[in-house]
Write a structure and sequence with these properties.
alpha/beta; FAD/NAD(P)-binding domain; 2 domains; 6-stranded mixed sheet; 5-stranded parallel sheet; 16 strands; 23% helix; binds flavin-adenine dinucleotide
Length: 285
């Protein structure tokens, strides 16, 4: 155990890096953890066009700019995966392997991971497969896209893509009445994706295939207990929370609410249950 930091930040994506920067500006002592340095989600995109002040920047350029900025501020990244957080009263102990760190406050900025990705999804993410209509929609202007949506909430994204693309092949994974115009609704569950002659070939569980220029697998919402709506969000945070076994009341709730606060689903109904020594139970308030 070295020192007790004011703030420990877990996760090195844009959120964690921004938190670290602002903590440093406020002259807090901090430690910033990234299991693999800066998030690969930052460096992956070939082009990012919605970052204010950087009209056309590649992911690698953005990552370099982020790193340069934090280095200028004297912030370093501790390459470690945090596997547990233990409340100790007025501070927390964070563990990584056998190593322990102490901090008065912990900021969780662990992003979201796709759960159960279909074959080909991870490999083609950023080169044909996308999770984000706003980020990548314009790439498919005048083209054909296949869009799998997991909740009604994502229909705004489908409509948005329909305005840009020539055709939207819509694969709702729930009962949807969205139709019309250039939206063609197809029944079927995405089962795999691959490239074929420069296009994307999405295979469906019913044996059919859909050909498109791009495939959007929309992320679903953060309702962890609705398997129909969840495609992402569960990974990092959820597996991490399972390691927190017996925190006193308030700690997990704080963590869960932090996690859920980023979601439009935020409500007590959307909060996941917590694990208590006696089993699963509703989040305590
Ligand atoms: C291919 C692709 C293209 C994209 N294009 C755009 C775009 O053009 N415009 C746009 O606005 N957005 C885009 N996005 C989305 C954007 O990258 C994410 O919204 C953003 O990275 C989220 O930032 P974050 O800091 O919340 O989480 P993340 O970037 O997910 O970072 C979280 C980090 O925490 C780490 N971590 C998790 N658990 C632990 C742990 N226990 N210990 C230590 N570290 C941990 C993870 O490994 C990860 O590095 C794109 C994403 C992808 C994948």
């Amino acid at each position: 155990m070295e020192q007790r930091y004011s703030i420990a930040i877990v996760g090195c994506g844009p959120a964690g890096l921004s938190a670290a920067l602002n903590a440093r500006i406020r002259k807090k002592s901090l430690i910033l953890f990234g299991e693999d340095g800066v998030s690969s989600k930052v460096s992956r995109p070939a082009s990012i066009s919605n970052y204010l002040g950087m009209p056309s920047v590649s992911g690698e350029e953005l990552k370099s700019a982020f790193l340069q900025h934090i280095r200028q501020m004297g912030i370093t990244i501790t390459n470690a995966r945090i596997d547990g957080i233990y409340p100790m009263g007025d501070y927390f102990v964070l563990s990584s392997g056998g190593r322990m760190y102490e901090a008065k406050t912990v900021i969780l900025a662990m992003g979201a991971k796709a759960t159960n990705p279909i074959p080909g999804e991870q490999q083609l993410l950023g080169s044909g497969v996308s999770y984000c209509a706003t980020c990548d929609g314009m790439v498919y202007e005048g083209k054909t896209v296949a869009v799998a949506a997991y909740s009604e909430q994502e229909e705004d994204d489908v409509r948005y893509l329909a305005k840009i693309a020539k055709k939207v092949i819509f694969l709702p994974q729930y009962g949807s009445s969205l139709a019309g115009g250039n939206i063609e609704t197809v029944a079927g569950k995405p089962a795999g994706v691959k490239k074929a002659d420069g296009r994307l070939c999405l295979s469906l569980a019913n044996g059919e295939t859909v050909l498109a220029d791009g495939v959007f697998l929309l992320p679903g919402c953060a309702d962890l207990w609705n398997p129909k709506t969840v495609r992402s969000s569960m990974g990092a945070v959820f597996s991490f929370l399972l390691t927190i076994d017996y925190p006193p009341s308030g700690v997990t709730d704080f963590l869960f609410q932090t996690f859920c606060s980023g979601s439009p689903q935020s409500s007590s109904a959307a909060l996941p249950r917590r694990r208590s020594p006696s089993g699963w139970g509703p989040p305590r308030r």
